[in-house]
Design a protein that fits this description.
236 residues; alpha/beta; seven-stranded mixed sheet; 7 strands; 48% helix; globular
């Protein structure tokens, strides 16, 4: 029994990273390792559940940034492309902006670009503002005493003019052109938000996110697992 457990532990240590890092199909790995597809999927499910529990809670992650002297954190969203869904679920996960099926995630990073927390998975049609409100990001920032810099996709998120915590640029309309000062302000915010782009780039090195085949209902846990693993690899 002990030998069997040792063999299984060694196989898990090799096969689970092969799935999440290199997006290897369970059927391919099963055939070459004399293991059933069901067993590999079960191992992946167990590993994802255990590692997801290690992801920091949002309030603790933000308080850690505040204790480290941070005042403002970058906030942004990204689309993780998924397989085409069937029947009614097909339209729900379709992004008109990106012309692709996918799930939307928001992420907060520290000033060095280390991912602090990812939001729950939401269909892209819901939009970044609705996703941020669903995860109560403004409330968590206020509790931690932090502000956030965000892109134009999150204009209108912070509805408290007396105590704003979300800073965004200014949108240009057909009737109202941006002034030189507003353009410079937008450029400054974009430059300051650069660390969150680096965080997303490191996260997307995991090839399983190239086109997610996982059930979208389980995608939130997967992203939290990859957040933990990414920070272990790229701690700045």
């Amino acid at each position: 029994m002990a030998g069997w457990r040792s063999r299984s532990a060694g196989q898990i240590a090799v096969l689970v990273p092969a799935v999440v890092r290199h997006d290897q199909r369970a059927a391919y790995l099963a055939g070459g390792n004399d293991i059933s597809v069901t067993t590999i999927r079960r191992w992946c499910d167990v590993a994802i559940a255990l590692l997801a529990a290690k992801a920091p809670r949002r309030d603790r992650a933000l308080k850690k940034i505040a204790r480290g002297g941070g005042d403002v954190v970058p906030l942004d969203g990204t689309l993780i492309r998924t397989r085409r869904r069937t029947a009614k679920a097909n339209r729900k996960n379709y992004s008109g902006k990106h012309k692709s099926h996918g799930l939307l995630f928001l992420a907060l990073t520290d000033e060095r670009g280390n991912l602090a927390r990812t939001s729950s998975a939401r269909r892209d049609a819901a939009g970044e503002v609705k996703t941020a409100r669903h995860d109560k990001i403004c409330e968590h920032l206020r509790i931690a005493g932090l502000g956030a810099l965000a892109d134009l996709g999150l204009v209108g998120l912070d509805q408290d003019p007396n105590d704003p915590v979300i800073t965004t640029g200014v949108k240009q309309t057909r009737k109202k052109k941006l002034t030189t000062a507003q353009k410079q302000n937008n450029q400054l915010i974009a430059a300051t938000r650069a660390p969150v782009e680096h965080g997303f780039a490191a996260l997307k090195d995991w090839r399983i996110l190239t086109r997610l085949r996982l059930d979208p209902a389980r995608a939130t846990n997967l992203l939290r697992v990859l957040l933990v693993l990414t920070n272990l690899e790229t701690s700045r």
